[in-house]
Amino acid sequence: MTGPGMPVDVHEGQAAYTPWTLRFYDLAIFQVNCRFFWRVPVRELLALFDRNLADVHLDIGVGTGYLLDRCRAHAPRQAVTLADLNEHSLRHAARRLARYHITTVRADALRALPLPPGCFGSASVNFLLHCLPGTIRSKAAVLDHAAACVRPGGRLFGATVLARGVRVTAGARAQLALLNRRGVFHNAHDSLADLRTELAARFPSHRIAVFGCTAVFEAEVP
Ligand SMILES: C[S@@+](CC[C@H](N)C(=O)[O-])C[C@H]1O[C@@H](n2cnc3c(N)ncnc32)[C@H](O)[C@@H]1O
User: Fold this and answer.
1) How many whole angstroms separate alpha carbon 41 and alpha carbon 64?
2) In which domain, by residue range, is 74 found?
3) Tens digit of pLDDT for each residue in 55-64?
4) Among 21, 57, 86, which is best to mutate for testing ligand 1, by the most ligand atoms less than 8 A from CB?
5) What CATH number corresponds to the domain at position 45?
6) Gap from CA of 65 to ligand 1 centroid (Å)
7) What are the pocket residues of ligand 1 if the criterion is a CB atom closer than 6 Å to any ligand atom?
8) From CA 12, how far away is CA 216, in angstroms rounded?
9) Distance separating alpha carbons of residues 59 and 80, to the nearest angstrom
């Protein structure tokens, strides 16, 4: 999607997800990247979803819907709103998760979401922040937009690949450099310290766990 007023780097952060690339996404991300480059066990991501997913959930930056498909969601009463800038991701994930009550919303997570406030029990932003341009400080607007949709006491969670303050292997460093050059990722300056600061500024109750160069975070929405 390109459109009037959309910065090039925001466009680039979602442009890689085409019907063709989405066919290989699960293999590339969950079998190869998580295991060999980012060093985050997929079981930790599934456990994150299992711990935090509410019956009425908002997923922002949906990809293929892999984790929502594989986690212990509460079918048949599970309701999931999928929000993404990319129509291919939305279509792919909606098809895959058709056993739930699915709503799709095409939206830029860097702007306020066109959803009613406080309606969701949980929201996820998994592997979204590292796609977005800007500093962790500016990207954290996404946390505000997601949290605005969640009821007080609800959960906000996700994971992001960092470049600073975490252990980045030589292989991961080379891969991240390439992805940043291509505009698929924008995380060359993303640090664990900045992520901690932004989470702490918003959520008195939150937790970050680091696996390899990936931060896995979860918070209670105040
Ligand atoms: C790396 S995938 C993550 C998919 C999934 N959450 C996962 O954990 O595998 C990033 C997703 O975020 C979407 N995305 C990228 N930039 C976005 C933006 N500014 N607003 C909303 N979605 C965006 C992409 O289209 C893609 O579906």
Assistant:
1) 18
2) 8-220
3) 999 999 999 9
4) 86
5) 3.40.50.150
6) 10
7) 10, 13-14, 17, 29, 61-63, 66-67, 84-86, 89, 108-110, 126-128, 131-132
8) 24
9) 7
- Look at residue 1 and tell me if it is in a domain: no
Question: Is residue 112, in this structure, part of any structural domain at all?
Answer: yes
- Per DSSP, the residues of 143-204 read HHHHHHTEEEEEEEEEEEE-SBSS---HHHHHHHHHHHHHTS---TT-BHHHHHHHHHHH-S
Centre of ligand 1 to C-alpha 146, Å, is 14
pLDDT band at 74 (very low <50, low <70, confident <90, very high): confident
Confidence band of 3 (pLDDT split at 50, 70, 90): low
Pairing status of strand 56-60 against strand 79-84: parallel
Residue 184 within any structural domain of the chain: yes
Tell me how many domains the chain contains: 1
Residue 60 lies in a domain: yes
**Which amino acid appears at position 77 of this protein?**
R
